[in-house]
């Protein structure tokens, strides 16, 4: 997900995003801006998303963290996972909450 801007800027079309479940409006902004050849806007959106992307993908458990983000944001009713996935450690959860708050996504 951190490579989305580079992929699109080099001619990629469309994305499959893990973090897009948590911050879809930012990914929509990146895709639309690149399609309009407005790389400055795309870069600004990418930079806004960077810390949330790191909180979700930087742990090595993107699926776990994306589901947790969707739960924290009220998109799903439960963060319950199926094995072999296990819940995120408190440290990862706290970091994700901090970054979503910093982005203005949580109170």
What do these coordinates show?
The chain has 107 residues and is mostly helical. The protein is built from five helices and no strands. It has helices at 4-9, 24-35, 39-57, 62-72, 90-102. It is elongated and about 40 Å long. The two termini are 25 Å apart. The model has no long low-confidence stretch (mean pLDDT 94).
Number of strands: 0
End-to-end separation: 25 Å
**Proportion of beta-strand residues:** under 5%
For the residues shown, what is the average pLDDT? 94
Helical residue percent band: 55-70%
| Envelope shape | elongated
Uncertain runs: none
The secondary-structure element order is: HHHHH
Number of helices: 5
Output the structural class: mainly alpha
Question: What does the largest sheet look like?
Answer: none
The Rg value, from CA coordinates, equals: 14 Å
List keywords for this structure.
107 residues, mainly alpha, 5 helices, 57% helix, 0% strand, elongated
SSE layout:
Elements: H1 4-9, H2 24-35, H3 39-57, H4 62-72, H5 90-102
Summarize the structure.
This protein is mainly α. It has helices at 4-9, 24-35, 39-57, 62-72, 90-102. Helix 2 runs antiparallel to helix 3 (39-57), helix 3 (39-57) runs antiparallel to helix 5 (90-102) and helix 4 (62-72) packs across helix 5 (90-102).
């Amino acid at each position: 997900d951190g490579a989305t801007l580079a992929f699109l800027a080099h001619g990629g079309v469309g994305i499959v995003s893990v973090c897009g479940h948590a911050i879809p409006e930012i990914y929509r902004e990146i895709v639309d801006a690149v399609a309009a050849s407005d790389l400055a806007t795309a870069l600004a959106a990418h930079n806004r998303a960077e810390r949330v992307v790191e909180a979700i993908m930087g742990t090595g458990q993107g699926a776990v963290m994306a589901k947790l983000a969707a739960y924290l944001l009220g998109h799903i009713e439960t963060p319950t996972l199926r094995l072999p996935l296990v819940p995120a450690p408190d440290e990862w959860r706290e970091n994700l909450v901090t970054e979503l708050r910093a982005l203005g996504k949580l109170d």
